[in-house]
UniProtKB/TrEMBL annotation:
It comes from the Bacteria. It catalyses: L-glutaminyl-[peptide chain release factor] + S-adenosyl-L-methionine = N(5)-methyl-L-glutaminyl-[peptide chain release factor] + S-adenosyl-L-homocysteine + H(+). This is peptide chain release factor N(5)-glutamine methyltransferase. Its EC number is 2.1.1.297. CDD domains: AdoMet_MTases. GO terms for biological process: methylation. Signal peptide: none annotated. Residues 149-224 form the Methyltransferase small domain. Keywords: Methyltransferase, S-adenosyl-L-methionine, Transferase.
C-alpha cells in the first residue's frame, strides 16, 4: 500500500476518517478504533515533545497526560489539527504491524504493559482468565484455605500480564512468573518489577522444584496452537513469537499437557489450576486435567461464548 500522509493543516476529523478507510483497505478489522488510538498516541507524543522543548535543562519532565479515545473524538469535533507523526503511525498499522508494537503498550485490565517484538501481545480473553483466577483465590481465602503468604504461579508468563495483574489485585500473595524466552523475559521484567513479582527464567515443565506442593494457585496461558494451524492474521503470524504460539503436536496439546502435570506437582492439596486454550480444545483439556489427577473440573467460555478456560482442583489427601 502507499504511505498514508496527512495534508498540511488537515483537521483531525478528516484525518481520522481517511485513516479508517486506509486501514479498512489494508484488512484491519478494528480500523476506526485503531485510527483513534494511534491519534491518541500521536497527541501524547506531541505533548511530551512540547514539554521537553519548553523545559529546564537537566530537569525531569512531568508525566504526559494520557489521551483517551473520547478525548480524540472531542478534539475531532472541535476542529483540532491532526497531530504530528500521525501519518507514519497509520502507515505502520496499514502494514499490519500490531498496534501494541507501534505504541509499545498493551492495556490489560487496569494495567498498561510494555510490549514489543519478541513477546506475545496479551489478549482480552486472558483478562477473563485473571478474573476467574482471582475468583478462585478469593474463595479459598474466604474459606480459610490459604496459608499466611499464599504462593501463586504464572507458568509461561510472556509479557507478565497474568502475574502482574494477580500481584496488583492481590498484593498479599507471593507471585512467581516463569518464562523460557530471553526476549519475552526482558519485557516481563519491565512489567513485573513494579509489582514485586519474582521472575524465574526457565522451562515451565520443570520450573520451581523448591515450591513443589506449596502453591495455592497456578494460572497459565501456554502456547496451544496445533502445528499445522498457522494463524491467518499477519499481526499474529508474523509478529507474535512462534515459541508463544505453537503448543506442540498435531493437536497443539503437548505443552498444555506438560503444564497441567507440572502444575499438579507444584500445587498444595486443595490448590487450583486454571489454563487458557483454543475453543476447539475443551474436551482435550478436560481429559488432560482428568489424566493429571484434577477433580472439580470446570470449563469457562469467553465473551464470544466460546470455550476458553479450564480449571481444576488438586484433591486434598
Amino acid at each position: 500500500m502507499t504511505e498514508f500522509v496527512t495534508a498540511p493543516g488537515e483537521e483531525l476529523d478528516s484525518a481520522l476518517r481517511r485513516a479508517s478507510a486506509y486501514l479498512v483497505a489494508a484488512g484491519v478489522e478494528s480500523a476506526a478504533t485503531d485510527a483513534q488510538l494511534l491519534a491518541a498516541y500521536a497527541l501524547e507524543r506531541q505533548a511530551h515533545a512540547a514539554i521537553q522543548a519548553g523545559g529546564i535543562a537537566g530537569a525531569q519532565p512531568p508525566e504526559t497526560e494520557h489521551v483517551s479515545r473520547g478525548r480524540v473524538q472531542a478534539l475531532a469535533l472541535l476542529g483540532h489539527p491532526a497531530p504530528d507523526g500521525f501519518g507514519r503511525l497509520v502507515t505502520l498499522r496499514g502494514q499490519r504491524l500490531p498496534l501494541q508494537h507501534i505504541t509499545g503498550q498493551a492495556h490489560f485490565r487496569s494495567l498498561t504493559l510494555s510490549v514489543g517484538p519478541g513477546v506475545f501481545v496479551p489478549r482480552p480473553e486472558t483478562e477473563l482468565l485473571v478474573e476467574r483466577a482471582l475468583t478462585v483465590y478469593r474463595s479459598l481465602q474466604e474459606h480459610g484455605q490459604l496459608p499466611v503468604k499464599p504462593v501463586v504461579v504464572d507458568l509461561c508468563t510472556g509479557s507478565g500480564a497474568i502475574a502482574a495483574s494477580l500481584a496488583h489485585e492481590e498484593p498479599g500473595a507471593k507471585v512467581l512468573a516463569v518464562e523460557l524466552s530471553t526476549e519475552a523475559a526482558a519485557w516481563a521484567e519491565r512489567n513485573l518489577t513494579p509489582y514485586g513479582v519474582t521472575l524465574v527464567r526457565g522451562d515451565a515443565r520443570t520450573a520451581l522444584p523448591e515450591y513443589e506442593g506449596r502453591v495455592s494457585l497456578v494460572a497459565s496461558n501456554p502456547p496451544y496452537i496445533p502445528a499445522g494451524a498457522v494463524p491467518k492474521d499477519p499481526e499474529v503470524r508474523d509478529h507474535d513469537p512462534a515459541l508463544a504460539l505453537y503448543g506442540g503436536g498435531a493437536d497443539g496439546m503437548e505443552l498444555p499437557r506438560a503444564i497441567a502435570t507440572r502444575a499438579f506437582t507444584l500445587l498444595a492439596p486443595g490448590g487450583y489450576l486454571i489454563m487458557e486454550h483454543a475453543e476447539t480444545q475443551r474436551e482435550l483439556m478436560r481429559r488432560t486435567f482428568v489424566a493429571a489427577g484434577y477433580e472439580r473440573i470446570v470449563s469457562y467460555d469467553d465473551l464470544a461464548g466460546k470455550p476458553r478456560h479450564t480449571a481444576g482442583y488438586k484433591p486434598a489427601t
